[in-house]
């Protein structure tokens, strides 16, 4: 009986999580797979990722990101400078061309949560507020995961 209960509880939790890792259709944009990397103690920044698809026939641009977990959120790109991999904020925002999919992922463009207000633990769920030039503002839920840590990111995420 107890085993059965645990089984259903596990099933319920996994259903809840897949519901949370939802696809959000917002005007001409489809946002999916939003997640945030967990942080060890005394870590004051972390990265977030998501997929943005523009199914419309007009370009759009992600111009502002915020979240209650961090004082500031930047959109970062990764560049090579003198053979050193560096992260740079995209000051003018991130363009999502008509018909295109932009995948923010480890080792690529990502959201950088700066001056975190708390420890970010796996399985927690947080909201990310996204502002697009044309589509406007929306909030997506992002699940905290441990995710793959590349040496590059690990080094760079300490240097802000
Ligand atoms: Cu970064």
List keywords for this structure.
single chain, 160 residues, alpha+beta, Immunoglobulin-like, 11-stranded mixed sheet, 49% strand, globular, binds copper (II) ion
Share in β-strands: over 45%
Q: Helical amount among residues, as a percent range? A: 10-25%
Number of helices: 2
Uncertain residue segments: none
* Overall number of domains: 1
Give the strand tally.
11
Distance between the termini: 52 Å
CA-atom Rg in angstroms: 17 Å
Largest sheet: 11 strands, mixed
Q: Look at the structure and give the CATH class.
A: Mainly Beta
CATH architecture: Sandwich
Envelope shape: globular
CATH superfamily: PCu(A)C copper chaperone
Ligand catalogue? copper (II) ion
Structural class: alpha+beta
Give the SSE order as H and E letters.
Answer: HEEEEEEEEEEEH
Q: What is CATH's topology name? A: Immunoglobulin-like
Mean pLDDT: 87
Oligomeric description of these chains: single chain
Question: What's this model, at a glance?
Answer:
By secondary structure, this protein is α+β, with helices and mostly antiparallel strands. It contains two helices and eleven strands; from the N terminus they run H-E-E-E-E-E-E-E-E-E-E-E-H. 24% of the residues are buried.
């Amino acid at each position: 009986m107890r085993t059965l209960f645990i089984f259903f509880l596990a099933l319920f939790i996994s259903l809840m999580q897949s519901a949370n890792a939802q696809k959000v259709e917002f005007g001409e944009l489809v946002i999916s797979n939003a997640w945030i990397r967990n942080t060890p103690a005394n870590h004051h920044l972390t990265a977030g990722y998501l997929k943005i698809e523009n199914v419309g026939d007009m370009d759009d641009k992600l111009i502002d990101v915020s979240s209650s977990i961090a004082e500031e959120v930047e959109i970062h790109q990764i560049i090579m400078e003198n053979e050193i991999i560096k992260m740079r904020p995209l000051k003018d925002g991130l363009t999502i061309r008509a018909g295109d999919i932009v995948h923010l992922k480890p080792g690529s463009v990502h959201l950088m949560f700066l001056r975190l207000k708390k420890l970010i633990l796996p399985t927690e769920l947080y909201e990310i507020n996204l502002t697009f030039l044309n589509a406007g503002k929306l909030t997506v839920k992002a699940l905290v995961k441990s995710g793959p840590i590349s040496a590059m990111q690990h080094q760079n995420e300490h240097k802000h």
